[in-house]
Structure formats: C-alpha cells, structure tokens
Write a structure and sequence with these properties.
This protein is mostly helical. The chain has one domain. Helix content is 69%, strand content 9%. It has a two-stranded parallel ribbon with strand order 1-2. 16% of the residues are buried.
Length: 68
C-alpha cells in the first residue's frame, strides 16, 4: 500500500502527470500512486482530479501504455 502525505502528493502528482503525458506511458507503481492520491488527498483541486481521471481514462482506452 502507498502512503500519501497531502503537501507532497499534489506536487508529486503534477510532476508525474507531466512526465506521463510526455512519455505516453505509466508504470504500475505510478498508477497505484495516483489512485492513492485521488482517493486520500483532499487538498487536490478539481482540475488536478480531472487530470488524474483523464490519465486513468487514457489507460483504459489504450492511449497510455501501462508498463511494469
């Protein structure tokens, strides 16, 4: 299980989203991290939540590659 702290999670999530958009792939570890962030971090803005949800949608539709 991944532990998430509120202050660090928002910044880390932003960097992870940017990196994922550039590479068009996301690791399983990063995917689960974002899942934890979106479920546990109440300090995320609505825009940040939408970005993470878009990444999840892109994984499901095959636009982003999930790697090990």
């Amino acid at each position: 299980m991944v532990r998430v702290t509120a202050q660090k999670s928002a910044e880390a999530a932003r960097r992870l989203i940017n990196r994922t958009r550039l590479t068009q792939q996301i690791s399983c570890k990063d995917y689960f991290y974002l899942t934890s962030v979106i479920l546990a971090d109440t300090s995320l803005s609505e825009a940040e939540r939408r970005q993470i949800n878009r990444l999840f949608d892109d994984v499901q539709t095959g636009h982003l590659h999930l790697i090990d």
